[in-house]
Amino acid sequence: MWKFGLVGALLLATLAGCSGGGQAASGEAPTGGNAPTAAKKRIAFIPKGATHEFWKTMQAGAEKAASEKGVELIWKAPLKEDDRAEQIKVVENFTVDKVDGIVLAPLDENALAVPGNEAIAAGIPVLIVDSGIKGLEPISFIATDNYAAGKTSAERLAKAMGGKGKVIVLRYLEGSASTMAREQGFLDGAKEFGLEVVSSEQYGGATRESAQTASENLISRFKEGDTLSVQGIFAPNESTTFGMMRALEGAGLLGKVKLVGFDSSQELLAAVREGKIEGLLLQDPFKMGYLGVTKMLEHLNGTKPEPKIDSGAVFVDKTNIDSEEVKALLPK
């Protein structure tokens, strides 16, 4: 019985191998049946960080595009939003791994140029989102017009202040091209719209905690009794806006000084609705993530994407916070 079972099994295996309906071995062309399914394109997406709502929303957009287009999305962020060395390492690892394309939001406009160009030299196309990079030619650059958005922030703050008064700027992080452009746009706009900038050298850093500490130092510097000697404040991203809001709250000044910030979180939106923050410039990170994947795929499929795409920004305050336009920009 044992010998018969073995012979029968071998015979069945031989017949199955000759039937033409089985899977071809790895690396071999099939001898019959349907043609093999093309392998999914592997797109690595490297944001500046993972903790802020901005990046979480961008990831949602990228994942939606990947699902719709049948792309394998590999999302990998540095643990800290100021860790340039870690982001460089992530780019280098994906280059060695020979992914089909890299979508990158560079932490530093200079430091990421070398690993980015090394990826391009290795035959891996690079698309840049959110923040620019020097000395690199991406297949496309998808971002907010940050300089214009910074100028809009100055215009709206000046309007809230009656076209005059003193303001301070809490910067974000040296080397971050997107926020540097916003800051410069605000500074140029402040001159144009009649505001006096009395401080613009303080950096909040990459976290809410460091931004709050920097904000507390600024408030202490300009506090006169129960008031501030400035009437307005500009913060260029979510963490600096949140840190400044918390510092003003702790000093009993929230709502008494006009604060204009950037990006959104549930806490910041609630503060706008309650009139504690004058307004926020909202970008569209979902759109950035979605277009980052779709435009990379277009390139991989032989279609040249637009070299520069403005993903847009909207100023939100109490008057339009519940509008459909604003709702479309909020975290999905």
Counting structural domains, the number is 2
CATH superfamily of the largest domain: Response regulator
End-to-end separation in angstroms reads 65 Å
Helical content (DSSP H or I, runs of 4+) = 40-55%
- Tell me the β content: 15-25%
Order of helices and strands: HEHEHEHEEHEHEHEEEHEHEHEEH
**Average pLDDT rating:** 89
User: How many strands?
Assistant: 14
CATH class of the largest domain: Alpha Beta
Give the strand line-up of the largest sheet. 2-1-3-4-5-13
Detail the poorly predicted runs. Answer: 1-37
Q: What structural category do the secondary elements indicate?
A: alpha/beta
**What spatial form do the alpha-carbon principal axes imply?**
elongated
Known CATH architecture of the largest domain? 3-Layer(aba) Sandwich
Largest sheet: 6 strands, parallel
Assign the CATH topology of the largest domain: Rossmann fold
How many helices in DSSP terms?
11
Rg (CA only): 26 Å
What does this 3D model show about the protein?
The chain has 332 residues and is an alpha/beta fold. It has two domains: 42-144 and 285-311, Rossmann fold (3-Layer(aba) Sandwich), CATH 3.40.50; 146-283, Response regulator (Rossmann fold). It is 43% helix and 18% strand. The protein contains eleven helices and 14 strands. The chain has helices at 2-18, 53-69, 84-96, 113-121, 146-160, 177-192, 208-222, 238-250, 266-273, 285-300, 324-327, and strands at 42-46, 72-75, 101-104, 126-129, 141-143, 165-171, 195-203, 223-224, 227-228, 232-234, 258-262, 279-283, 308-310, 313-316. The strands form three sheets. A six-stranded parallel sheet has the order 2-1-3-4-5-13, sandwiched between helices. The protein has a six-stranded mixed sheet with strand order 7-6-10-11-12-14, sandwiched between helices. A two-stranded antiparallel ribbon has the order 8-9. Helix 5 packs across helix 6 (177-192) and helix 7 (208-222) packs across helix 8 (238-250). It is elongated and about 70 Å long. The relative contact order is 0.13. Residues 1-37 have low confidence and may be disordered.
